[in-house]
Amino acid sequence: NSDDNSDDDSDIKSKGDDVFEENTSHWHKPFKSEFEPMEMRCLALVAHNHMKPAMKEFVASHKELLKKFRLTGTNTTMTMLRELFGDDPSVQYGPGFCSGPLGGDAELSALMCLQDLGGIIFFMDPLSAHPHQADIDSLVRLANVHNIMLCPNPASAHAMCFVLEKALIDGRSDLIPSFFFTLQSPGVRVYKADQARAFAENSCLHDRSMTDKPRARRTGKEAIMESGYLVNK
User: Which residue out of 7, 17, 87, 105 is catalytically annotated?
Assistant: First the structure.
């Protein structure tokens, strides 16, 4: 019955919380990064409304790691970051943007195209409709086009933190290349080859049409006669 299902859900949540706390206890320990924030591209944090509490917990649990990056994001998330970090002078922020429905996701896409966005931690709400869905789709698509780090939920973000931490401690830019280099999807090379082929074919057809000898201009009556609809008496 519904009560039994509710108990099961609570039990699953409790077990999940215990595992999360156990595995994130060390995130509060300070460590030295081999890279300065200004040496890397920005890390964006974004969360839909129903996911903001989860993002707040995530940031609170990973403050020591996150503050090693230049942080950016949409308006409400940036406000939350400033509240959590307070007056910590070691925290560096990148540009701030509007809330998502007012163009924040589109602004993040622009920052990516300007080659100053290395990764996105985006807690997406899969159960709500969003008025700016087109902007969300564009941000995700461009993240794939530019092959930058993208974590679309808490589980992937938590897992990625282990890689981020190791990269910073060991000075391994090769573990997080999108924060240092301009990348692209393997599909881009195929796309560009197809575009070049299509352009070459169109250019060839254009050149051929320009070299063909133009036909003599015909009168309207001659054209009709050639069609067979008019018999010239």
Answer: 105
* CA–CA distance, 207 with 202 (Å, rounded to integer): 9
- Tens digit of each residue's pLDDT (9 = 90 or more) over 65-108: 999 999 999 999 999 999 999 999 999 999 999 999 999 999 99
How many CA atoms does the CB half-sphere of 28 hold within 13 Å? 8
Write out the chain in H/E/C secondary structure: CHHHHHHHHHHHHHHHHHHHHHHHHHHHCCCCCCCCHHHCCEEEEEECHHHHHHHHHHHHHCHHHHCCCEEEECHHHHHHHHHHHCCCCCCEEEEECCCHHHCHHHHHHHHHHCCCEEEEEEECCCCCCCCCHHHHHHHHHHHHHCCCEEECCHHHHHHHHHHHHHHHHHCCHHHCHHHCCCCCCHHHHHHHHHHHHHHHHHHHHHHHHHHCCCCCCCCHHHHHHHHCCCCCC
Q: 125 catalytic, yes or no?
A: no
Model confidence pLDDT, tens digit, residues 100-117? 999 999 999 999 999 999
Confidence class for position 202, pLDDT limits 50, 70, 90: confident
